Amino acid sequence: METVNSAFQYCDQLVRDFEKVIEAPIVTKSSVYYTGVDLGTAYIVLAVLDENYQPVAGAYRFAHVVKDGMVVDYIGAIRIVKELKQELEQKLGAELIYAAAALPPGTDSLDSGAIKHVVQGAGFEITNVLDEPTAANAVLKIQDGVIVDIGGGTTGIAILKDGKVIYVADEPTGGTHFSLVLAGAYKMSFDDADQYKRDFKNHRELIPVLRPVIEKVSSIISRHIREYPVKEIYLVGGTCCLNGIEDIITKQTNLPTYKPQNPMFVTPLGIALNCTQEIL
Ligand SMILES: Nc1ncnc2c1ncn2[C@@H]1O[C@H](COP(=O)(O)OP(=O)(O)OP(=O)(O)O)[C@@H](O)[C@H]1O
Ligand SMILES: [Mg+2]
């Protein structure tokens, strides 16, 4: 279990540091800044690291410019990334030049051009476009097991063997569907249901209502890992913030399931860790 503990130690510390600098950026000068741009279905997140790859600033915005990993509002995406970039540049008193971005697994042949153009359109030099689970694993540092990224629109699955991604999949079930279930059950608008869901105080009450959709995600995981000797599940993505989701997944899949303290920023930080100064 050594690997599990040490992986989460690094991950939890990095995420904690990132949460701090979102509130209070570190403005001491760095010779270079590395930015990770995560264009998600629910959130656009920018994570900025210094020359030593330590978090110095971050910002995020709820947005609907991406659907199931595809950029559907190209102009809107550029505008938001540009605004977040400017906001962070002002706070840091420095220009952000280099960025990396990521794609859900399996969509690269379709969409890597669009993501790259959004990041460039916002004024960055793009240095890397990687797949999301590989990004997440830069933070988790898992050798063997499956990383399950339950985001807004999709659930990304990446099986690792000896630290390398050997199988990936992306399925269109995510937090958006959780909110739709709640909107129906509670007769709320989608936005109200999503907000209600994000409040940790409500999680205990929500778990029974969300159980069927969590079980569906569990069956998706089980189906994809069936032919691989996976012994452990690692959860990331905003939807995994839900208290108790890990217990249902453990029960349904019969596999020990781990999640870091805040699974929401793992992928954006992993993207930033993969940013370099070499322009693509
Ligand atoms: N505290 C919370 N409790 C429960 N759900 C949450 C919480 N915070 C965020 N979420 C949910 O997490 C989802 C967004 O997660 P994330 O930021 O990982 O997705 P994304 O990267 O934008 O989407 P995708 O990866 O599918 O493109 C939303 O559905 C949101 O409602
Ligand atoms: Mg995501």
From TrEMBL:
InterPro entries named among the record's database cross-references: ATPase_NBD, EutJ, FtsA/MreB, PilM, SHS2_FtsA
NCBIfam families: EutJ, PRK15080.1
Domain named SHS2: residues: 34-140
SUPFAM superfamilies tied to this protein: Actin-like ATPase domain
Origin: domain of life: Bacteria
Gene3D superfamilies: 3.30.420.40
SMART domains according to UniProt: FtsA (SM00842)
Taxonomic classification: Bacteria, Bacillati, Bacillota, Negativicutes, Selenomonadales
Organism: Sporomusa malonica
GO biological processes: cell division
Identification of the protein by name: Ethanolamine utilization protein EutJ
